[in-house]
Design goal:
Elements (H helix, E strand, L loop, with lengths): L1 H25 L2 E6 L4 H12 L3 E6 L2 H11 L2 E4 L7 H9 L3 E7 L14 H28 L3 E5 L2 H4 L6 H21 L4 E7 L8 H4 L2 H9 L9 H12 L10 E4 L8
Parallel strand pairs: 1-2, 1-4, 2-3, 4-5, 5-6, 6-7
């Protein structure tokens, strides 16, 4: 009788453990992409979905983000990262959804000689690039920690390589690099944090700079690989850094810059 009772208890425990494993298998994990309608963000979203994973898209233009979400059969949030409590809106839309990846693909190109730069220029750039990134990560920390998640941030080649008139954006993105390595130390071993530093990429925010064909060609020739970046160049690396394939990589600032930061 005692042996039968023990066997039943062991069987019950085994079935309970198996049930929990099945529950874990069928939990749908998502990767959140902030700035999902930009050149890099949209390319990243498509690559992730093509690989069989799920994404939650975040963008400020409702028409663009809802169209991309429909194309990818994904959930989405419409908000501006400069709004108060924007992260709470994303969390509310996600509900109980589990998150194992976060890509903050928000950026700006603010070019002015220092003599024309105002305090408000620095504040706006830091709010957009640094503070909104920190607020987003803070909102998702518990979820990412529970799921051993990964965070990808974006800097610029102009932090490592000095360019004239880049004081605003280089300062803000330099702060992003500092945030990335600091949080990589703070969150290890539960959350990995890495940063990608692209050179000039064909995108909506660079369109004014590149609308002159001769200027665009001239900038392209400044790169050892003799072309401008595309969204897919950075998104391929971002997808890798969000995946388990990069499980031993954290605290890195990685250039995707056509060699501009290190090759003469």
């Amino acid at each position: 009788m005692f042996q039968n009772t023990c066997f039943i208890k062991i069987l019950h425990a085994s079935l309970f453990a198996f049930k929990n494993q099945l529950i874990m298998i069928f939990i749908i994990m998502k990767k959140v992409i902030i700035g999902a309608t930009g050149a890099i963000g949209s390319s990243l979203a498509k690559k992730i979905v093509e690989s069989g994973d799920k994404v939650h898209l975040v963008g400020r233009d409702e028409a663009s983000v809802s169209s991309l979400a429909q194309e990818l059969d994904s959930s989405f949030t419409v908000c501006d990262v400069l709004e108060e409590n924007f992260a709470s809106k994303i969390l509310n839309d996600l509900g109980d959804t589990q998150i194992n990846g976060l890509a903050f693909c928000v950026g700006s190109i603010d070019l002015k000689p220092l003599k024309l730069v105002k305090k408000s220029d620095f504040m706006q750039s830091f709010n957009l690039n640094l503070i909104s990134a920190a607020e987003t990560i803070k909102a998702f920390t518990d979820n990412l920690k529970k799921n051993k998640g990964s965070v990808v941030l974006f800097s610029t080649v102009a932090v490592k390589q000095g360019f004239p008139n880049h004081a605003i954006v280089s300062s803000a993105k330099g702060a992003i690099e500092g945030l990335a390595v600091s949080l990589a130390a703070e969150f290890a071993p539960n959350i990995r944090v890495n940063c990608i530093a692209p050179s000039l990429t064909n995108s909506k925010i660079s369109s004014n700079l590149l609308k002159n064909e001769k200027i665009a060609e001239s900038i392209a020739k400044m790169h050892p690989l003799k072309r401008l970046g595309e969204g897919s160049d950075s998104s391929s690396l971002a997808k890798f850094l969000l995946s388990e394939e990069s499980s031993w990589i954290t605290g890195q600032i990685i250039g995707v810059d056509g060699g501009r930061s290190s090759v003469a």
